[in-house]
What we know:
This protein has 277 residues and is of the alpha/beta class. 38% of the residues lie in helices and 14% in strands. The chain has an eight-stranded parallel beta barrel, surrounded by five helices. Strands 1-2 form a two-stranded antiparallel sheet. The model has no long low-confidence stretch (mean pLDDT 94). Bound molecules: 3-methyl-2-oxobutanoic acid. 3-methyl-2-oxobutanoic acid is lined by residues 31, 49, 51-53, 91, 145, 188, 190, 211, 221, 223. The site of 3-methyl-2-oxobutanoic acid (KIV) has 12 residues, from strand 8.
Amino acid sequence: MSAQSPQTGQKRITAPDIRARKGGEPVVCLTAYDAPMAALMDRHCDLLLVGDSVGMVVHGLPNTVSVTLEMMILHGQAVMRGAHRAMVVIDMPFGSYEGGREIAYENCARVMKETGAQAVKLESGPTVPETIAYLVQRGIPVMGHVGLRPQAVLTDGAFRARGRTEDERLRVMAEAEATADAGAFAVVVEGVAESLAREITEAIDAPTIGIGASSACDGQILVSSDMLGLFDWTPRFVRRYGTMREDVERALAAYASDVRARRFPAEVETYFSKKPT
Ligand code: KIV
């Protein structure tokens, strides 16, 4: 089942399409935050996540806790303008869904209406699967997120891999199963050991989308600015496919040097008044 983009007439990938990829061709996902990058990613990715990581990688915040619904809507609208084929999922920010399922429904419905995106993502703590079931039953496709949950950084104390003790392992497994049973069409599994990622992937019907969770998952996602090489430091699980930081640095230094030496603008970059006829 596919929806059509009103702009291009292209078929857009939907939640059931992603769901049907379980155990098949790996699902290619990246985070996206703006229209031009989403347009470049559209051809290559099955799913673009407007991650609340936008708070850290675009807005310079220390974590995702202070990201607002308005920020997610603004970036979601931009991504929807750039991408016409990939499925677009919007991360629900901290505080927008934990307070009760009715509040969650209201906020998720607002995000879907104002962005036109196909689904939302919720970090699935112990109480969230019940909310996911409520949303799915009311027509909102939901992606879950288990393992390392960045929105729990203040209670957890740090961003660190999850499920390394037996207790934690059982908890993450139970949250993944409850999330899938609640009807999530896919589940992000972040920062867990390969054995746990494999166990979750084998146990649940929904595709698992790994980030720092090994190749045992049904698909992969990375924060785009990390894999493009925008930052000096990235977590160990990131592979850099680009040298964006160096490329931008080089371009900025060349521009500054040309302006200071009056090499820019040259004649070809200058408008002249028309000669009188
Ligand atoms: O916000 C985000 O970028 C995410 C990914 C890490 C999955 O949730």
